[in-house]
Amino acid sequence: MNGMLRDRRLWLITIAVFLLLITVFDRNNLLDRWKLKQQIRELERQRTYYLEKIAEDSTLIERLKNDAFLEQYAREHYLMKRRGEQIYIVPEK
Q1: Would you give the DSSP letter of residue 84?
Q2: Sign for the pseudo-dihedral over CA of 11, 13, 19, 25
């Protein structure tokens, strides 16, 4: 019975050491892999954001090629005006 208990302890110690090696000390350990997966998810979110931003900017560039839209955009965003024209800015609440 004492020998069987010793064998069980040896197996438990062996398994614990193996799990410790895998999760902490190995070059490809689980903790590093989890951190890398988190980084990959964040980078994929950023990639999606920037692809959407590129699509929006491309659409804006195409629209700015139209002179009427270019004038409207300049008036709205840069408060540009024609000669002799006055602009009144009304703050939004």
Answers
A1: T
A2: negative
* Distant-in-sequence, close-in-space partners of 22: CB < 8 Å, separation ≥ 6: 29, 30
Q: Find all residues with CB under 8 Å of 93, minimum gap 6, and list them.
A: none
User: Could you tell me the end-to-end alpha-carbon distance of the chain, in angstroms, rounded to an integer?
Assistant: 82
**In angstroms, rounded to a whole number, what is the distance separating the alpha carbons of residues 73 and 70?**
5
For 36-87, write each residue's pLDDT tens digit.
999 999 999 999 999 999 999 999 999 999 999 999 998 888 888 888 888 7
* Side chain identity, residue 72: Q
* Separation of alpha carbons 60 and 92, rounded Å: 24
State both tokens at 44: 């994929």
Write the pLDDT tens digit of every residue in 9-43: 888 889 988 888 777 777 777 778 889 999 999 99
